[in-house]
Design brief:
312 residues, alpha+beta, 2,3-Dihydroxybiphenyl 1,2-Dioxygenase, domain 1, 8-stranded mixed beta sheet, 5 helices, 16 strands, globular, dioxygenase activity, Glyas_Fos-R_dOase_dom, Ring-cleaving dioxygenase, dioxygenase, Extradiol_RC_dioxygenase
Length: 312
């Protein structure tokens, strides 16, 4: 039986100073900081999660802030562009907001859609697109209200070192549908209302270099733990070298690097981000997994102090 992911679960990137990261994604883009924790493999580094009010799959972008790390290079083997979706009619608000904060941007058109393109403070390429699908994000922050707020991911643009092979993985393994080709891009879609559109650059270019300002991996959705184990076997049976299941506290994860060198993750929708905090208090304090709780005092001395600040 062929499997189909509903769409993107989350995207994880490497950035610089954590306060600059928070000021941009919360203060300017109006996303909610839904979880502040640590990198489970490097607990001296934050792992920050931003999303909609409820932190739903398909809305979450996560960051490893490394203030003193070298600048990366966006290229093949990476997500090149992260696209957010906003309500229909909201793009003029965002044009004005980017101008207010002196963030350079440009307008473009792809597959018949108008997009606004800009970079975050650490060099990540971001786009905004307006679409009707997907419910409004009920989180309000500063001047960003639910009528104009980012709903979640519109999708992502993948840069692959072997685009034809990546296309096969998207359709034959992840179960996405190829729907259109325009210029150097092919579009694939999945069933979810958000996080459901992936554009693949069909011409290989320069290889990427991991560092600040680059995406580390893109994660796809699994319904639950049972579905997740099915995905692990399914990916393995399609010739991909997949990892063991890793408990990430807010979801379980498996990883594989597809032939175009992009790191794919498959993550479970549950348990989500409210199981160790209330929905009202998510993101308000440092949450540690059990194995690091005994080191809380040391970690709190080591980690750079951060806060969510209203910039308007």
């Amino acid at each position: 039986m062929k499997k189909h992911t509903a769409g993107i679960h989350h995207i994880t990137a490497i950035v610089g100073h954590p306060q600059e990261n928070i000021d941009f994604y919360a203060g300017v883009l109006g996303l909610r900081l839904v979880k502040q924790t640590v990198n489970f493999d490097d607990p001296g580094t934050y792992h920050l999660y931003f999303g909609d009010k409820g932190g739903k799959p398909g809305t979450i972008i996560t960051f490893f802030p490394w203030p003193n790390a070298y600048q990366g290079r966006i290229g093949d083997g990476q997500v090149g562009v992260t696209t957010y979706v906003v309500p229909e009619g909201a793009l003029p608000f965002w044009v004005n907001r980017l101008a207010k904060y002196s963030i350079p941007f440009q307008k473009a058109e792809r597959f018949g859609e108008q997009v606004i393109q800009f970079d975050d403070p650490h060099g990540l390429h971001i786009e905004l697109v307006a679409r009707a699908k997907g419910g409004h994000n009920e989180w309000s922050f500063g001047e960003v209200t639910p009528e104009v707020a980012i709903k979640g991911f519109g999708g992502a643009t993948l840069f692959s070192s072997h685009p034809e092979e990546t296309a096969k993985v998207l359709t034959e393994v992840m179960g996405l549908e190829k729907v259109a080709t325009e210029g150097d891009y092919t579009r694939f879609t999945s069933s979810a209302e958000i996080g459901n559109t992936v554009d693949l650059k069909t011409v290989a270019g320069q290889g990427g270099q991991m560092g600040v300002g680059t995406v580390h991996h893109i994660a796809w959705r699994a319904q639950d733990n049972t579905d997740h184990l099915e995905w692990q076997e399914y990916v393995m049976n399609h010739g991909q070298h997949v990892t063991e299941v890793k408990d990430r506290n807010y979801f379980n994860a498996i990883y594989f690097r597809e032939p175009g060198e992009i790191l794919f993750e498959i993550a479970t929708d549950p348990p989500g981000f409210a199981h160790d905090e209330t929905p009202e208090t998510m993101g308000s304090q440092l949450m540690l997994p059990p194995q690091y709780e005994q080191h809380r005092e040391q970690l709190e001395r080591t980690l750079i102090p951060i806060k969510v600040r209203e910039l308007d």
